[in-house]
Amino acid sequence: MIKVTFPDGSVREFAKGITGLQLAESISSRLAQEVLAITVNDEIWDLTRPIETDAAIKLHKWDDEEAKHAFWHSSAHLMAEALQELYPGIKFGIGPAIENGFYYDVDPGEVSIKEGDLPVIEAKMLELAQRKEAIVRSDISKADALKRFGDIGEVYKTEMIEALEDGKITLYTQGNFTDLCRGPHLPNTGDIKAIKVLSVAGAYWRGDEKRKMLTRLYGITFPKKKMLDEYLVLLEEAKKRDHRKIGKELELFMFSEMVGKGLPMWLPRGTALRLRLEDFLKKIQRRFDYQQVMTPHIGNKQLYVTSGHYAKYGKDSFQPIHTPEEGEEYLLKPMNCPHHCEIYKFKPRSYKELPVRLAEFGTVYRYEQSGELHGLTRVRSFTQDDAHIFCRPDQVKDEFLKVMDIIFIIFNALEFENFEAQISLRDPNNREKYIGSDENWEKAEQSIIEACAEKGLKARVETGEAAFYGPKLDFMVRDAIGRKWQLGTIQVDYNLPERFELEYTGEDNQKHRPVMIHRAPFGSMERFVAVLIEHTAGKFPLWLTPDQVVILPISEKFNDYAFQIAKEMNAQDIRVQVDDRNEKIGRKIRDNELKRIPYMLIVGEKEAENGEVSVRRQGEGDKGTMKVADFSKLILDEVDSLVNQYNK
Fold it and tell me: Which residues bind Zn(2+) per the record (predicted)?
């Protein structure tokens, strides 16, 4: 017999070898029908895998991320099985579950898989799913795995097997398809009721531009057709909110092949929006005693060797810049933190002046693969709202709490109300990935855990997700249509102060190491603006929007009155445009609705005579007639209520 501990703490005994599915059946037949995966001692397992020792377990239904992972991982194998039948000789790369659905990278040889082929692949997947094929796990030796996949010419699988450790290799088989895989998977394909193959794209093998371009097929599946229908509606809404589409319509940013891939350029309206975000954070930072600094866009290669960034990220950076001086190399700045360490070292520091808080909107450069570039969310040049706090060990938790306060102010001001936090710790079984002593890591991790507890913030703990130099707290925001984005981050770092030999003189007159806190509430300005565009569908808060008001003269006779009002309002820092086109008023209203300008002011003979404007609010229609001064006060009061409350 073995002892099984359930999530509520209760313990029951079962026969050794019992499966997750049998455990669910022992509770209720309804649960057995709904459960999709099981966590056994913090590891996700197949429901059909025997449990041989005492274990703590949790059964997962569809709403759990673990269940979706198993469901979509199994669906990736189902797609591969369908492709194997439809395209004899096709070779397989990897097919993971992702946040929404799954993909599979394949090499179809001389055949080309196009968008028009996707319905055929869908139909074959449904046909196979309806067979309710059992998905069977088996162990295999490395030698046998190499022979098995080598004999059938699966060159991508054999390359993966070469890197695996013997004794820990497993296969999964369903029908006539067998894949190299760690799992977990569903018991059989019967739970997969609704299928959509979403798109086809190219992807370099192993993400290496020097390797072969494979075909990547994206898909999503659900246990009910209604769920798929709802998702497809959501997908259409997401297309309408695409920041690339809205950014072009509102003339916020652009890209140019002549300038270079992944290098965004901010147009005047987008620049104005971004600068308002920066000014908003700068005001908050002044309240929290930050000092603004500016650093170069390049740095000597040795700077990043010292920091450890070159060893970890050198291959993902732009190649070194060689100067006329023999052996001298510079890098485009991939990180701001090494520069800030050098600023801290500029002069001797005393314990009395700590914490030192250095802030910079610093532009950095990373050589992202061209296939990974996506609008503003994946770029090669981006600006981080970076700050680095150098403090005494006894100040870490208090400083961490203050940074959390700043992040909450920003989320409140921009109506990001639905968010969750994740504490990222190092992987205790893979410590060579990280730099620094065990003692420092333990202190840093404990500081984050205690700060979250003190704030009453429920944070999910993820082992193995820490930065190479320290643990961190990340904030995942859900936008207006429920999608999850990683935005703000706070990281505790005992290691860079060691590497740069940072010091302060303590109360005991001895030299001590400061602790470094990295923080970026927005993350990157590019990514944050992209998320904000999609969250608001381009209908920005009044204080932030590039144009707050557009004035629409009924005819050319009233253009002078319109421009007079605009001049008065602009003098009060209200952002106003005049639409003086020779168009009918109905057309002007429709066109400016599409521009997402919050207020439209219609002016004609009556308004000009009385010093008034006829007011329309975006999405709300006619709001009546007002005196110009009263409308100006309305706008200024609304802006004050939206933003200035956070800067008092």
Answer: 337, 388, 518
